[in-house]
Amino acid sequence: MLSGIAYFIVQTVILDPLQTEISDRLVRARVPPQIITQVSECTKSSLPALVRRATDDPQWAIVIALDVWLKRKTPEKVVEEAAPSCKPVMDSARSYFAKGTV
Hints:
single chain; mainly alpha; about 85% helix; globular
């Protein structure tokens, strides 16, 4: 029961806003569809790790949620910090952002 609530909160407050922002930026940057798919799959697959970390360290979860909502960091940076396994995929997407298209 509690894990279901934790999943819902992390997905609603952290993951969904991140995915929306990143997807919008990737589309505007004209990133190839396969990279967009990889980024989306990586962020979705990171949900269990995010929930574990959020339940182990609630302060971390609050800081990440604030970073997302207040846009204190770029979405790709937040994803890398929250899910380090997504770094290679985010690096490939970042190369399009660096071209000045976003």
